[in-house]
What does this fold into?
Amino acid sequence: MAAVLDHFHLGSANIYTSIDRLQKELKLAHFDGGFMSNVVIGHKAFPLNAGVYIEVEAVIDPFAVPAGQEPAFQKKAELFGTEVWNGVCLRVDTMAEMEDIAKRLGGHVNPHPSMRIRPDGPLNKSISCPQIPGAKPNFELGLPQWYCWEDRLYRHPAGMPTVPMAGARKPNGVEWVEMGGDEDRMGKWLGQDPKTLGMRFNGKKPGLYAIGIKTDEGVIELRRPSVNQDTLEG
Amino acid sequence: MGLHIDHISLASPHIFRSADNLLKETGLGFWTGEWIGDTSVVIVPLGPPGNFIEISGFVDIFTLRTMNEHKQWILDITETGDHFNGLCLGVDSMEELEEFAKHFKSTVNRPDNPDPARHFQRADGYILPMASTPSGQRSPWMRGLPNVYYYPDRTHHSSGQPSHPCLNMVEPTGIKWVEYGGTEKDMDDWLGIKGSGDLLKMKFNGKSMGLWAVCVGAYGMDDIVIRRPACTDAVPASKFEI
It folds into this structure.
């Protein structure tokens, strides 16, 4: 089966101010996703329905990361004074597909799953690929990575209840995804036509730049700098 | 109610992890809580008459590039893990709060400050109005002493908001006692009252000032005792003597 959109990662300097700003801008509701137990990151998310969500993350433990060694997405968010797009995450149904993708790209499945502890207790585990020895991380190359939720899709963030919010729009998936780089390179990486994921290309440095969110009030745009930009201007 | 315990502050290096740890240790649920600038509090409701623990910590690590005395204090007391860093008493009227302000030779942090950045905000955008005393840069918490609050609209009190639903969650029935450092006379002198021990359900352990433990009643089960070091165990109160 071809991969589908799973989630979009937004890096933040302060997830509370980011969520406040984003929910006012988008008129979309969010939920408190807890924290990543293995990477000391706080997590909040906007479920967009249709199997897609936006996650907003930042390291909050001042003792976990020495000053100056914060994740690139967090440093850029602070530098640019706004959230930054870190990357696109796709989804496949089975670990066999994950293994195939990783093998095709010369890597392997990440042996360290993403382990998020929800505020109501349960662990949310997702597995990613590829990890390619000697290569830069996928997002740093402006390329998507794949996730598999195995039999845990019933607890997927896209379907989580949100904090009540007056006047919230009802989202229903993503219409388009604006990427840097070029379509040919992306197609080779994906092993499928980028158009099947709604991707369009702006010719800038590789990375994610904007998404068009389908809602009951039409498509709304969420545009932020890419983590791969050197300056706010590009 | 008169003078009573309203809430307790637990300083944490990682508020989400601390809330999860406390949930697993006690079965007490929590909700997302409130934030103000670089700091957020996860709220653990403790039951009537409106008690709660706020698990507080930085959520913007870049704030530490610009240090001040208060941030350094938070950093110092959380470097070795969670510490109780504040006891927050409550009164029923602004007049009572003004009386405490006079006693403290201070003023009241007013609930109607027009600057939204001076208030705690919730995830749904609600701005929490509350007044407190004493005011000033140096909190009495740094010397292990309580301050006093008044909530003009108690119907939105932090202790009454719904927790994230958890399996086997305990139903708390309020604070039964707190264990405090120092002596009853120390507390009486600070608050300008007599009999703070009975009035505020305080037991005194003679250690450095500050909160060392809280006992919470739980419906249908044994009381829950939450014990953490007081902030003055990590940073001596003498550092902040006036």
